[in-house]
Amino acid sequence: MSPRAYNLGKRQEPIEAARQQVLDAARRLLGGTASYTAFTVDAVARQADVARATVYYQFGSKTGLLEAVCDHLADIGGLAGLAEVFTDPDPRQALRRFVACFGEFWAADRPAMRRLRALALLDPDVGAVIAARDQRRQQGLTVLAARLTGAPPAGPGLDGTVRTLMTLTSFETFDTLAGPDQEITAAVPEIVLLAEAALGLADNRPYGQRGQAGRA
After folding, report:
1. Is 11 helix (H, G, I), strand (E, B) or coil?
2. What is the pLDDT of residues 102-117, one digit of tens each?
3. H or E element: which one contains 213?
4. DSSP strands (E only) in the chain
5. Calpha distance 170→103 (Å, rounded)
6. Are 36 and 95 in contact (CB under 8 A)?
7. What is the residue-averaged pLDDT of the chain?
């Protein structure tokens, strides 16, 4: 390794450390603030104990910071595993895995998720970021619903079903069904039941047996 490459690596370390420091501060601010106007670049910089310019250098803008926070939450929530869901040859099992995957994702940082979703209704910057993420979830559900019903993904016949599935797999539904005393993933079995019912796939067998049967 050349000295130049080594020096570049050493310089990169504090840059990555500062980036992680800002992301952690943003999550703390989202999860702990009681004010809907408190999430600003200045507030995140103060929480992270860095200069405001550092936040802009790392993320470019408030929207860039929000995108990075969402990506960070996706990483720690295991959302990368969602790609494997669509390779499952059994579309019914794929739906169950999709629901379980989003249960883990929403559980990654429940207070921060709750605040982000609430802020999306009030702050256009947050709303645009969350809307883009929701659109990806909608696209995935459209693919799964088309496989399960045989309807064309681009046709109008799936619109109502996909809207129902979007509601069922939203953070708000998971958060409500789990309640304040349970982990958010506790809602997965009930949401699977509701999603299957929405698709006309209701099954009276226990949730665990249905999952195993899907692999048979």
Report:
1. helix
2. 999 999 999 999 999 9
3. helix 207-213
4. none
5. 9
6. no
7. 86
